[in-house]
Structures are given as structure tokens and as C-alpha cells.
Design brief:
10 strands, binds flavin mononucleotide, alpha/beta, 14 helices, 392 residues, two-stranded antiparallel sheet, eight-stranded parallel β-sheet
Length: 392
């Protein structure tokens, strides 16, 4: 039995690819059309440099901060990601891991585990919402999340539709029944370690979305919930302000890439924004979120909390985002690779790696705390920062 611990997120990714059936792996890799945004999210971090010091360094370095009123022990949160069928415990395993490592779990609307179970595992949970269904249905779902005791909400507005992918989209079954097991069986049988995890707990991957269920209804299937979402006319800024007021608590708007939208989000009353392009799953050719971060943080960072997600694979990426003015970052695929590679322990492994790599960067840069980071700590190529949608 090889050592289940991995030394970088790249290794977790390799193990996840080997371990998962190709359709499950393909669903996580995601990306839209040619995958240019997906690739740029990672590539852009590599264009930013460091100039390390060798003396007057600090023996102790601090990473604790807070986000939307929740204290966190490192500036990294779990980003909401849909059905986590890579592991039988799915979102509950991720919630336990994030609680053990002192950070926030964000739960996707399309999750396979209930908000009640997830809050039980990590009381520092944010519930992610889409603009989906009638206002009455949205209020019902928000009330349920509040009653479960979540610490805040995340309204995601940056995934408007699903485009094809040049490398092919995975076939996601409507539900897992005998027929689908027969159809996908050979792929699953080629990945016995993944299959064994489910067989051990006598479970089959769940493709329903229990947090989208309305009172008295069975949980809709993933595609049932998706259909309701796609039938909902997109929101106006007035709709956004309505939802923010209705939530009446800490709320983040996820998916901002333009300065004008960031300012409108402030006017709508949000507590925080995430500068994000949905991990390269929205409009392909959107630049990496890290390229848009600095100008947005300059414009609204004094009024609301600014978070970044997209392309975070190393602690040094986190430090670069903080240097541009992010308060914290959220991880999507990095956590999913950890979950696929080694379940709850794999997500803890990813968070431990990020913590230790952030610490190394702080040491090398001569910083006592993440709060001292700023643009002078990184080498920024000319033209790297993009002020998108700058108001005239
Ligand atoms: C497989 C997958 C599913 C996702 N599902 C959701 C979701 O349900 N809700 C949401 O707000 N964002 C979702 N996202 C976007 C992530 O929250 C996040 O923005 C993105 O993964 C960040 O990029 P990274 O994967 O490079 O860290 C999803 C991303 C992936 C890869």
C-alpha cells in the first residue's frame, strides 16, 4: 500500500486522475470550449514572481484572519462545488476536513448531502445559492439554510450556460440505477479502488440535490434542478438587492470580474465578493481571475471583503492573491483532487500543504503575517493587471 500522503496538489491531481472513472474525472476537470480561461487561471500565477530576502526574517508567521465574520486559521476557504460523488461521504467529508483545519466550508446548491448534515460536520458553513426558480422557492431554500445554522450565503452569478468542450463533455447520468450501473460498469470496474470505497459502505453515487427539494418533495435529480435553474430569467441588479435584503445576513457575490460589477455589488449591499470566472467554466476567453483582482480590490476593498478563486494550487498562489488585496482565497479543484485521492484525509492534506507553503513564502519574503503583504512583495510583469469594466 503506497503512502496515502501526497507532497503537492499536482500529485493529488495525478492520483485522482488514476483513481476516478473517466466520466467522474471529466466532470471535475470541467472548463468551457477551448479551455483557455481554465488554463490561464493557472498560467497567470506562474507569471508572477518573488524576490526572497535572506536575513531579518521572522521566526513566527501568522495566517489567521476572518471572512464574513467567521474566524479562519489560514486564508483559504473551500469553494462550493457540485455533487462530490468522488467519495461516498462527499460534502460531509470536506466539511469535516475544513472544520479540523479551522476554515470555512462552502456548500453548493447542487450538493449531494443535506445542509443539515454539513453544518453538523462544520458549523462554519456558507450556503451557496443560484438565482433559480420563483422568489417564493428561493425564500424557502434560504429559510432552510438559515434554520440549519449556516454562517453566511454565497450567491453565484457567473455560470450562465453550459458550453461544449473541445475534449468532450462527460456523460452524467440522470440518476444511478441498474441500467446506468450496467452502462458505466466497465469504466467503474477499471477503477476498483474508487468502486471499493462505495461498496464498503454499501452505497452508490448519489446524483440527487437534496438542498433543492421543496417541502414535501423528493430531492430533484441534478438535471431536474439544473432545468429549474435554466428556466429562470437571469437576475437584474434590483433582483440581487432583493435577495441580499431577504437573506439579511453575511452574503458574498461570487463571479465578479469587472470593476463596474464590483461597485454594483457594493451598492446591492453584499458583505463580500469573490473575483472569479467559475474556474474557467463560464465564458471561455475571460482572463484569469488573478489578472482582474488588483484593480477590483483597489476599487472596493475599502468597503467590502474581496476574495479570489480560480487556479489556486499552491500556497505561493495564495500569497500572490493576498498581495493584490484579497482577504482570502477559495479552492475548488485542489480540494476535489484531495478528496478523490484520499477522502477526508486528502482534503486535510491539501489544506496542510497550502498552510505550509504560505508559511514558506512569508518566511522568504520577510513577513511576520499575511496582513503585511502588498504589491511590492511580488514581481508583476507589465500589462499583467487588467482593469476590466473600469467606469468612464
Ligand atoms: C466540478 C466543479 C463544480 C463546481 N460547482 C460549483 C457550484 O455548484 N457552485 C458554485 O458556485 N461554483 C461551482 N464551481 C466553481 C468553484 O466554486 C470555483 O469557482 C472554481 O472551482 C475555482 O477554480 P479552481 O477549481 O481552479 O480552484 C465548480 C467548479 C468545479 C470544478
Amino acid at each position: 500500500m503506497p503512502n496515502p500522503w501526497f507532497e503537492t496538489v499536482a500529485e493529488a491531481h495525478r492520483r485522482a486522475k488514476k483513481r476516478l472513472p473517466s466520466s467522474v474525472y471529466g466532470a471535475i476537470v470541467g472548463g468551457a470550449q477551448e479551455g483557455l480561461t481554465l488554463a490561464d487561471n493557472k498560467k497567470a500565477f506562474g507569471e508572477l514572481g518573488f524576490a526572497p530576502k535572506v536575513a531579518d526574517l521572522y521566526a513566527d508567521r501568522a495566517q489567521a484572519t476572518s471572512i464574513m465574520g467567521q474566524p479562519i486559521s489560514l486564508p483559504v476557504l473551500i469553494s462550493p462545488t457540485g455533487i462530490q460523488g468522488v467519495n461516498p461521504d462527499g460534502e460531509v467529508a470536506v466539511a469535516r476536513a475544513s472544520a479540523n483545519r479551522g476554515t470555512v466550508m462552502s456548500l453548493s446548491s447542487f450538493a449531494s448531502r443535506t445542509v443539515e448534515d454539513v453544518v453538523d460536520a462544520n458549523p462554519q458553513t456558507f450556503m451557496q445559492l443560484y438565482w433559480c426558480g420563483s422568489r417564493e422557492n428561493m425564500v424557502t431554500r434560504m429559510e432552510r439554510a438559515k434554520a440549519a445554522g449556516v454562517g453566511g450565503a454565497i450567491l453565484t452569478l457567473d455560470w450562465s450556460f453550459s458550453d461544449g468542450r473541445d475534449w468532450g463533455s462527460p456523460v452524467i447520468p440522470e440518476k444511478v440505477d441498474f441500467k446506468t450501473i450496467l452502462k458505466h460498469g466497465p469504466d467503474a470496474l477499471r477503477h476498483p479502488r474508487w468502486l471499493l470505497e462505495f461498496l464498503k459502505v454499501k452505497q452508490i453515487p448519489d446524483l440527487t440535490t437534496p438542498n433543492m427539494a421543496l417541502p414535501g418533495q423528493d430531492p430533484p435529480t441534478f438535471f431536474g434542478a439544473y432545468w429549474e435553474w435554466m428556466q429562470t430569467p437571469p437576475p437584474s441588479w434590483d433582483d440581487v438587492a432583493w435577495l441580499v435584503a431577504e437573506w439579511d445576513g453575511p452574503i458574498m457575490l461570487k463571479g465578479i470580474i469587472r470593476i463596474d460589477d464590483a461597485k454594483r455589488a457594493v451598492a446591492a449591499g453584499v458583505t463580500a465578493i469573490s473575483v472569479s470566472n467559475h474556474g474557467g467554466n463560464n465564458l471561455d476567453c475571460t482572463p484569469a481571475s488573478i489578472r482582474a483582482l488588483g484593480p477590483i480590490a483597489d476599487a472596493v476593498g475599502g468597503e467590502i471583503e474581496v476574495v479570489l478563486d480560480g487556479g489556486i494550487r499552491r500556497g505561493s498562489d495564495v500569497v500572490k492573491a493576498l498581495a493584490f488585496g484579497a482577504r482570502a482565497v477559495m479552492i475548488g479543484r485542489a480540494g476535489l483532487w484531495g478528496l478523490a485521492a484520499n477522502g477526508q484525509a486528502g482534503v486535510e492534506n491539501v489544506l496542510d500543504l497550502l498552510r505550509s507553503e504560505i508559511d514558506s513564502a512569508l518566511l522568504g519574503l520577510g513577513k511576520a503575517s499575511i496582513h503585511e503583504l502588498g504589491r511590492p512583495d511580488i514581481v508583476i510583469p507589465t500589462g499583467f493587471e487588467l482593469a476590466l469594466g473600469r467606469p468612464e
